[in-house]
Amino acid sequence: MADGAHRAVQSSGAVLDTGSSIFATLGYLCLILGGLFLVYWLLRRFGPFGMGTPGSNAHSPRLLGRLYLGNRQSVAVVRYKTKTMVLGVTEHQINLLGQEEGDEPEDNEPSSSAFAGLLKGKVEDASES
């Protein structure tokens, strides 16, 4: 009886080869992960609603400059729409030090001298009041 069952398995041609099935499984896994990564990349590159890069959206805040003051403390100049804000950033909080309304800037790349001038103006305004 066992001999008949053995012949039935051999005649069906179903032979399990664990080496090739493991490689096939890994191949499908890589294919699926690659497809997921491609979809993620396409959504990040061309997708709507904040999945794009920070500079791709006109309404996203842009960091114009940052001055590090110490351990996890800095002063940052951020532009959002038409407002330019000077922010004090620490490990636990963010404080608005000053803000200025203005038109959209002509150039996309801010210079470090513009940051220094804006920071100097805000420091002078704070010392006067």
TrEMBL record:
Give the residues annotated as coiled coil: none
Q: Which GO terms describe its biological process?
A: bacterial-type flagellum organization
Q: Which UniProt keywords apply?
A: Bacterial flagellum, Cell membrane, Cell projection, Cilium, Flagellum, Membrane, Transmembrane, Transmembrane helix
Give the subcellular location.
Cell membrane; Bacterial flagellum basal body
Q: Bias regions of kind Acidic residues — which residues?
A: 100-109
Looking at the keywords, is Cell membrane present?
yes
For the keyword Ion transport, the answer is no
Which NCBIfam families would you find in this protein's record?
Answer: FliO_TIGR
**Family that this chain belongs to:** Belongs to the FliO/MopB family.
- Please report the name of this protein according to its UniProt entry: Flagellar protein
What species is this protein from? Pseudodesulfovibrio senegalensis
